[in-house]
Amino acid sequence: MTETMRPMTVADLSQIVADMPRYWGERDMRWGHMFPIVHEFGATCMVADSPEGIRGYLMGWVNPDHVGYIHFIATRDDARGTGLGRRLHEEFARLAAAQGATRLKAITGVVNTNSVAFHTAIGFSAQVVEDYAGPGEARVVFLRDL
After folding, report:
1. CA-to-CA distance for 131 and 95, rounded, in angstroms?
2. Tens-place pLDDT, residues 73-100
3. Helices (DSSP H) in 42-143: which residue ranges?
4. Which domain, by its residues, includes 2?
5. Are residues 115 and 62 in the same domain?
6. Domain with 39 in it: what CATH number?
7. pTM score above 0.85
8. How far apart are CA 79 and CA 83, in angstroms?
9. Overall domain count for the chain
């Protein structure tokens, strides 16, 4: 299946939140899917759209230090293993570089072994940073130069 990569809209985010279990299973990740991100950073938030709906998405932006930060990336349960996550990353890297980014960054929880495996497989370095999310809240920080 071929998806069309396009900028995320507020309506898309509403649909993603409504279908959250298709992307995140039992994890309730609604807390981080904030509509102002789409309003303010819409040029670097994207969906992979198909006739069957949104099969994946990435929310990210370029910070003042020229780092393309990936806030969320997810593929729908029926799109896993198709290379869609890699294609979303490639499109974000292209968009971020066009805005002056020289590297990419993402974070995840230490227990999220699937995210660690995915990000290292697509060329990110991974480092556990203690207290990254507050006292006693370690995170895995991923970095990749563009």
Report:
1. 31
2. 999 999 999 999 999 999 999 999 999 9
3. 84-98, 113-121
4. 1-101
5. no
6. 3.40.630.30
7. yes
8. 8
9. 2
